Amino acid sequence: MTGVDPEVAQHRLSISPDARPVKQKPRRQAPDRQLAIREEVDQLLAVSFIEEARYPRWLSNVDLVRKHNRNWRMCVDYTSLNNACPKGCYPLPKIDQLVDATAGHARLSFMDAFSGYNQIRIAPEDQEHTAFLTDQGVYFYKVMPFGLKNVGATYQRTVNKMFAHQIGRNMEVYVDDLIVKSQEARTHLTDLVETFATLRRFGMRLNPAKCAFGVTSGKFLGFIIHERGIDANPEKVQAIVNMQSPRTIKDLQRLNGRLVAMSRFLARSGDRCLPFFRALKNPKNFQWTAEYEEAFKQMKQHLASLPRLASVSPGEKIGLYLAASQHAVSSILIKENSGEQLPVYYVSHVLNGPEERYPPIEKLALALVLSARKLRPYIQAHPVEVITNQPLRHVLSKFDVAGRLLKWAVELGEHDTEDTDLEQPPEPWVLHVDGSANSKGVGAGLVLRSPDGRSFERSLRFGFQATNNETEYEALLAGLRLALEMQVDALHVLTDSQLVAEQLSGGYEARDPVMAKYLAGENERADALAKLASKPAPGVRPEIDELPARAIEIVAAVSGGAPITWVQELLCFKRDGTLPPDEAVARRLCRTHAWYSEVSGQLYKRPFTYPLLRCLEPDEAQTVLAEVHGRVYGEHIGGRTLAHKILRQGYYWPTMCRDTKAYVQRCSSCQEHARTPWQPAIPLTPIDCAWPFAQWGLDLLGPFPLASGQRKYIVVGVDYFTKWVEAEPLATITERQMEKFVWRNLVTRFGLPKTIITDNGPQFAGRRFREFCASHGIQLRFSSVAHPQTNGLAEVTNRSILDGLKRRVSAARLAWTDKLPSVLWSLRTTPKIATGESPYSLAFGIEAVLPPEVAIATLRMRNYDEKIMNEGLRAGLDLLEERRANAHLKALSYKRAVARVYNRKVRPRPIKLDDLVLRNTEVSDPTCARGKMAPKWEGPYRVDKIV
């Protein structure tokens, strides 16, 4: 038995001396569970992980739980044994610290121990205490099983001892999850060599199926880690997004638990989750209200744009923003990188009872204390700048402070923090604007006044005719241009035009086209004109300025051109905050802009698995699609694979999956060589027959090796009710031969059938055979072209005949005609699943006497009495109708069951008039004479009629 050397690690139970041994009562298991337990026990015995117990003092039952792949996992209920063992005090590593220590590395290797717990043995004196009960017997574990108390601590202690010289340097370990990390890709192989040397020295094995080596990102302890930071697990996010609105208190608790697991990524999670926490206070009268539903929707929207968290280097300075609301306090730990502030950790706390009545300054102090407790490893290891809009340090350092503030000040005294007050918002400038239009001319005046009392005045004379309202708008735009020149950050505008004020605030609707232009493009016009206009030095103010044309006309001339693309929208928003007029597009930009970065004037997307992806314009995307799909190195791959290949090449645009799928669907070469869809297009329609020998299916089988009489084909007929088979070898397959077979083998033996079902071969579809059937009142039905499943019973019978001949003729292939009767005899006397009866018994009312009954006499042969047998035969004939009726009912039930299974796979492909369709080349080229390189589909054809 392999595993970790017992000298290195053993697990001991440490059962309390006064504990009373417990033998649990046996629990019954369902048959499928018993089988799973038996298989697991056999495997454990084979690898010597367990051994049969004789007289155990402790006895536990086996439980089964479902795995993700729907298989069973065997567990042992060690509740009684665990209660008798004290809880170990060996600590497990903090997940947050492990994740932070791993993120930011260039190369990672994720490793998982193979049945990790089973690689550590149990102390021999404690092994029999792990005994468990099964239907096969009682066994105990020789290795450490799942479910025992303190096994996690034992395993953690073992791996800490094994990798003591690597943990923290180039490796992190959490129980059986191992990760090797390297700051540089070139050193990763050396780190792996060191790790595997340790694994070999201690005898620990890995599970290759769960290992990934030399990757740039991966999932570790529920987080996605990579060189650029830490991302939330998309599976956890999707689990919340896909949740239905809670209807019970259990659903709400499940929601809160999932949100708590994501709290590190949620800004102000206390305020966002407050409605859910309130609902838990009254579980007996729980009711999901509109307020809760709105909060749930907002939370889902927030989850769609979770930030990427940064990792912090040792000794790096970090910042802590504090915020307080009426019901919660929050903080965010940040780091600064190239002038950009990146989030590291979000903390939030819902205020309880008296805490809600704290003054704002005390709420911020509480936020700092709670953050210091939660983020203690960060604050101890890094200099921290506390950023708030309150004089927090001054309050906490006062000599006369008392009560909780004094206690908090003492607690915070151990940390290296400095306090920074946020800048107050700038005091606004005031802009007065007024426009005038009369018979003497059109003009406007404006006054811009600074907070310290300085005034800047400007007069405008317009070189065009305008209404009073238009002059008011022109005066406003001129004032905005002047404010830009003066680099004003905050502006308060005063105008005496009620129309302009109400339209800008949304109170009035701008119905006049000219007014609508002023209103819709205000920000764009101000920006564009500010760039076009010359910027005089502050304080220089000409007495009168000339404005030759309307501002909206100037901007239209400057900004006109091709429609803006999604790349241009994102670049404009990231550069100067410009949003498109479409509200839906604007909301999407605000939600997703953080996923993109601008590098040297190009837009790139930050993905989860690949390097930065260049964002493509629509025309560039079409070029890349054409090159990757079908040009020099394209192989006409499918839509999803094409999208993945383009991603790996380093390109991205938002509609990649849809565009690649549409491009492949439009590709004529892909359509002509597409695989035949295996999913059926229409539900299965079973063929029913209620009377013996009323409906036959005919088909041809061959060619076979040439036998006596030049015979190389077989014509096969099968009755749809009894499944009786008739077959005859033939030298030629002509209409005359088919006519003779039907007459000699079907009509003269079983009577005229009502229906015969065949394929579309010339032997059956010819005029002579049609006339023969018509003259005898036989309905001739044909299966669909290139669809032999229509005559499925005949096809299945052909396969059975062919299999029987192959097994009988062996090397004597030319003697297949001599073996055909024995194959038919076997088919006629074998019970069918559909009816539960043999064709012989349904035809004659009695089972046939088979050769073994002569060699080894059965009861009916040993006690043969002609008189009794004749009476039994007549009684069987009297009951034959009931026997056939029961067989018919069984056949109907069987066909319905088959149809239910078949119809689950149906994928409708409705065809309408005038649709363009492709036709399978099996119709025009049934012998595949065109070769393997020929297309599978031909066309297109237009649908002219639906039958």
UniProtKB/TrEMBL annotation:
UniProt xrefs under InterPro entries = DNA/RNA_pol_sf (IPR043502), Integrase_cat-core (IPR001584), Integrase_H2C2 (IPR041588), Rev_trsase/Diguanyl_cyclase (IPR043128), RNaseH-like_sf (IPR012337), RNaseH_domain (IPR002156), RNaseH_sf (IPR036397), RT_dom (IPR000477)
Renumbered residue ranges of the record's region Disordered: 1-32
Domain spans labelled RNase H type-1? 425-560
For molecular function, the Gene Ontology terms on record are: nucleic acid binding; RNA-DNA hybrid ribonuclease activity
List each copy of the Reverse transcriptase domain by range: 46-225
The residue ranges of the Integrase catalytic domain are: 682-847
Gene Ontology BP term (one): DNA integration
Q: What is this protein called?
A: Uncharacterized protein
- Taxonomic classification, please? Eukaryota, Viridiplantae, Streptophyta, Embryophyta, Tracheophyta
